[in-house]
Amino acid sequence: MTASRPPEQLLHPRPEGLYCPAGDFFIDPVRPVPRAMITHGHADHARAGHGTVWASPQTLDIMAIRYGEAFCDTRIPVEGQTEAGGIRVAFTPAGHVLGSCQITVDDGSTAITVSGDYARADNPACAPFQLAPCEIFVTEATFGLPVFNHPAPLSEIEKLLRSVAAQPERCHLVGAYALGKAQRVIALLRQAGWEQPIYIHGALQRLCDYHIEQGVDLGDLRPATTGDGKAAFKGQIILGPPSAFAATWAQRFPDPVICFASGWMQVRARARQRGVELPLILSDHADWQDLTRTIQELAPQQVWVTHGREDALVRWCELNQIAARPLRLVGYEEEAD
User: Fold this and answer.
1) Model's pTM, two decimal places?
2) Which of 54, 66, 141, 218 is least crowded, fewest Cβ atoms below 10 Å from its Cβ?
């Protein structure tokens, strides 16, 4: 049995990110480091320039797509468990985006699970969330307020399809982030029975192609440049990154219904600020119910809360006799979704 050490010695925040001294590695560091373990491929968690990177095979592929093949010196794909400096490390599906994992570090006496970003709602574009047992759970709190109670994903897709059917003279332009959200929206549309082509912005193409290579059924995808004038897009669904909506790209479509897929669309003021006509409350993060359910099911001795609404979740833990504290990390104050 390994002698017990204070948990802060096993894993603690440094300016670069969460650091494990015994294994001499960081988890999701915000600046280049010699040794990094990465939870998933979103840019606020996965950065280029590290020496050695441990991650799921899919996350390593996604980083290469986004940053180029030379994004790090050495790649170490992990499926399940590995070891670093005598520390056992387990990668467990997080349900957030393709390849996303929670990372558990275990010195034989204490296990700390860093959830990264996670979600427990239906997502046909990635592996489902699995509990990663631990004594200390490091949880995100992107939607860490009781007001955030997200609807079933297919109900939001059905809302989109009803709008398409009711306005056949218009196209529906859906804003969705390039990694994860776009592919999830497309896969859910296929689940809901939409068999027509879906048109996509060029910025989504390579990541959509990779999801298809990994067995995610996205159906008939076509470039959003296809068609003879604006009339060709009437009654169609087009996906693009939110940044494209302020560009001339969006002007090629006939009187578009502006939609945006995000958990933040539950906040009406955010929808109005973006000029969204049809908000789609579709999140790749756990809402309040799933945050608290996960903590209850794990029953950890401590909870460390980061990047989000820490105070409310810390208070909920205290009321439920669970030790908790905020773990404020630079670079993760609020997650895009």
Assistant:
1) 0.94
2) 66
